Known about the structure:
Elements: H1 13-23, E1 28-34, E2 37-42, H2 43-59, E3 67-71, H3 76-87, E4 91-95, H4 101-110, E5 115-118, H5 121-129, E6 139-142, E7 156-158, H6 159-172, H7 176-183, E8 189-194, E9 204-208, H8 209-222, E10 230-232, H9 240-253, E11 256-259, H10 266-273, E12 277-279, H11 282-298, H12 301-322, H13 329-350, E13 357-360, H14 367-375, E14 380-384, E15 394-395, E16 408-409, E17 414-417, E18 422-426, E19 433-434, H15 438-444, E20 445-446, E21 449-459, E22 462-468, E23 473-474, E24 480-481, H16 483-491, E25 496-502, E26 509-515, H17 517-526, H18 534-538, H19 541-555, E27 564-569, H20 589-595, H21 597-603, E28 609-617, E29 623-631, E30 633-634
Parallel strand pairs: 1-11, 3-4, 3-5, 4-8, 5-6, 6-7, 10-11, 12-13, 13-14, 26-27
Antiparallel strand pairs: 1-2, 8-9, 9-19, 14-15, 15-16, 17-18, 18-21, 20-21, 21-22, 23-24, 25-26, 27-30, 28-29
Amino acid sequence: MSALELLRGDDTFPKLLVRNARRHPGRTALREKELGIWQSFSWQAYLDAVRELALGFRELGLARGDKVAIVGGNRPEWVMSELAAQAMGGASVGIYQDSTLNEVAYVIDHCDAGIVVAEDQEQVDKILDMMDRLPKVRHVVYTDPRGLRGYRHPALLSFDDVRARGRAVLARQPRLFDEEVAKGTAEDLAIISYTSGTTGFPKGAMLSFRNLLAMALALHEVDPKRESDEFVSFLPLAWIGEQMVCLSSALAIGFTVNFPEEPETVMENVREIGPHVMFAPPRVWEGMVSSVQVRIMDTTPFKRFMYERLMPVGYRVADLRFQRKPVPLLWRVLHALAHLLLFRALKDRLGLSRLRTASTGGAALGPDVFRFFHGMGVPLKQIYGQTEIAGISCIHREQDIRFHTVGEPIPGTEVAISPAGEILSRSPSVFLGYYKNEAATAEAVKDGWLHSGDAGHLEDGHLVVIDRLKDVMRLADGTRFSPQFIENRLKFSPYVKEAVVVGQDRPFLGALLCIDMGIVGKWAEKQKIGYTTYTDLSSRTEVYDLVEREVTAVNATLPAAARIQKFVLLYKELDADDDELTRTRKVRRSVVEQRYGDVIGAVYGEAEAVDIDATIKFQDGKTARVQARLPVRRLGPDTPPRKVA
């Protein structure tokens, strides 16, 4: 029996919503914190809202096969809008909330959306300011009315207005919604998920309900969820990673999805909910570890003493389990004691006290971070996947965690390596193709196998990911190296937030690094080093010494020909608003190499520093001029790593 057959015909998101409302009408399906109070939506209330909205969309002209674009933060209205579009036979297209005008305009126009759901005044302004570039858009629906009372535009409607139109349709045709939902099939287009676009405009990956639900149910087999589980949705819903949990898994299994009040309150809201299920990219897990390290620096001597004595107990037990060795009775007793005295309070502080299934993906996660969470009893796993395979193809199993791998294929998924070293996947979750791009589709899927573009190899059934095939580079002497492999190891350091390794056709490897302001700032305060700004801190000799020790430690793990010989600490963090990163925080290498060409030139020159005169753009649109002198640090060929104070 196939995974979808287990759903007994409820093979689309709207059908699953109807099923869940029928089974558990009063159980909480969604929860949102607003004005300091958690507001709950039962499965029945969820269905009622979707029904009214769907019929309202139909009144606005939405037909089977049409697209609804959604831009905004994580809110119940987002998932309601998505399901409403799908209930009428349409598809949803997510747009990142912090996308630039050009990015928003490209996606809306490319996907042929006739209706755009925009969360608030900021997003509405974006759409209305470029309506002349969006001839296909007929209606803009806003969900948050604040600041929009005085707006007058023929295309503008409120979320409540659309629901009111739907109620009127429902009164006239009470069976219309059910009839339209019943027409849906597993093969229907559910979403168009735009890829991150590291090398140009993003491509729209078309995913059917079969793609999304087959993945969710296969993942459930090896990483089970429960109806009683709680999940906090705080990653962008435009990202396939959030879609696969917040919608695919939540609707298939029936657990509760919670939405935080603001992006700034995410971790506070996570602590309030105490989720059982959590999925987040490495930066979130690394941020938790960093926050603990910062607090330990500031805490009382007694608490610091307890942390420094008890964490090694957790590490020892975790290491034995990683090696699949039995844990001796003495260490089990010590670990139980450490749980009572430290780990229980620490997990509660981070909001992880009830966490049963935790995973990370999108980039490599450092072994120290894995050891930290497993040491205190959080079962963190690495996953691997991509938009074109509905999010996940591999995951670590509970008792088989290997730091350097991304686990084994989930049930129903085959993984192979091509003669060129490319990772290939085959499963029911392989996408339908790229929207309006047959050439790219033919290049991505050949003979049923999805060509990932990633280089890797298999090791005892586990997949090891090396880098993007196109990003594997050569030094001038022909030595091949993977910049991403080295960058990930550099970012394992708590002091390094971003790293870009350069060296194509050059005599040696160089690196452009961004420090982690919070961690390095705390370290500087502890060392009584004064500073004012990020630029000031990153140019300090002591900070260069600190980072040099980290780079040297990474070099010790690399072949001699692929070690970093020079590095520069940049005067600002790499930023998606400056097109240096994608919205999923992947480096746009070509942009960085062009923008920091003078810095790279200095790395390969004889100068000991490079003068910078640049303009920084802030999130609110303001700019500032930065003039700085960046040291170029040369590393000795065999400098041994030294422990940082």
